[in-house]
Amino acid sequence: MTWQHxxxxxxxxxALALPIGAKGEHCQEKSWNLALEEQQQLDDWYxxxxxxxxxxxxxxxxxxxxxxxxxxxxxxxxxLPHSGSLQLKxxxxxxxxxxxxxxxxxxxxxxxxxxxxxxxMQQQWEEISEHCNQAKLVRNAITSTHYALSNYKxxxxxxxxxxxxxxxxxxYQQEAKLLQELLDNQ
Length: 186
Description:
Elements: H1 3-23, H2 29-61, H3 66-69, H4 72-78, H5 84-134, H6 138-184
């Protein structure tokens, strides 16, 4: 064999091997560790916000809303036109309801803002899975598909959490609105 023939053979082998390596590049340890680290941060972020909402829901369940317990007519009957202490309590109730609305609106915005991150993580795992399949790394392909499905479920849970936060916010908005109307009609 000549030197040129050996060089050509080696170059051909490398050229044939490179696409397989490039296809499986995302299956390498460094890429996996990075994706797993990002996944852990995303899971931790979601768990923190879900726990925060559960605490808020616990506090909410201890609260009584006047708009749920009484009709506007009943509330007007309770209203004493010259009662400063009652007016002060109603103003405080409006203020508190608006504060909760503000906090829930901020939380809702944070959740919505991170929805694309969950979707991107799902896509990243799908790409890793595809590359692992192409590189015939079956175990890695299956595992990365599992992570992609987990992120699909996480996206659904995040949307559900966003809807729950939005619903809770609407309850406090109704309370503040009804009490404000009551004050304005006096």
